[in-house]
Amino acid sequence: MCMPGTALSRYINIYTDFAFKKVFGTEANKDLLISFLNQLMGLTGDSEITDVTYLNPEQLGDNINERRAVYDVYCSTGNGEHFIVEMQKAKQDHFKDRALYYSSFAIREQGTKGSIMKPWDYKLMPVYVVGILNFVMEEEDEEVITRVTLKDDRNREFNKNLQFIFIEMPKFTKEETELETFLDKWLYVIKNISRLDDKPQALTEGIFKKLFDVAEISQFSKLDRAEYDESLKVFWDFSNVLSTAERKGRAEGERDEKLRSAKNLKALGVDVETISKAIGLTKEEIESL
Hints:
This protein folds into 2 domains: 17-219, no CATH class; 222-289, no CATH class. It is built from 8 helices and 8 strands, in the order ααβββββαβββααααα. The chain has helices at residues 17-24, 30-41, 95-108, 182-192, 206-215, 222-267, 272-279, 283-287, and strands spanning 52-54, 58-59, 69-70, 73-77, 82-88, 127-133, 145-151, 157-168. A 6-stranded mixed β-sheet has the order 1-4-5-6-8-7, sandwiched between helices. β5 (82-88), α3 (95-108) and β6 (127-133) form a beta-alpha-beta unit.
């Protein structure tokens, strides 16, 4: 395996904006999106998605002062269902509120003015928000996929026309030999493709041959390669900022704990020199407490 997201990688890093949209957001590769959604939704036979139409990913407010939403991938199926597919690189405050807000555009745009003779009856087509998360949303839960629907206080379905599906990729830890389902294989590829030297033997389905052909960096045009390199640089910078913040947070947390311990020991009458040796703070720091 290659190191992920390096110049030596044979295949693209799907966590980058360019790669994600190339794989899932282009007309030429919509069969990849269709395959992934069918596996994620558990659709088979007559219920399978057979085609999608890409919609405008930029959703504007009613006026210039209102906030907008820009989706990574936004499409509708032949049955009129709407799918918002997002790659989320890092956890943020009010993440669930953000997902709800983004879904509101896809719901609201279905409204029609109607007419006196035939007013709009508020019938909505389903909206599915799919979040592929490169972070852990729920620490205490081991489930990789969380599905959210609208239910009442007796667990009865209130309305099936808005559903959220969150995939917490850090929780998906299966190796190639452990892949059991078609969906397992898709998640394995999304997470690991930039580390791979070749298509794994376990991925026997034909759709994966196309995916690996699409993802091979050496086959890119000069323009695509330049755009991918820029997207990869943004991804590296973003990852480095997160790592730095996490290290700083841990260091500050450790220091705060040391200060609390030193203060407690000082209150118990332990001498400053002993506290300094035990805790690792300077005498000046301890005396100032």
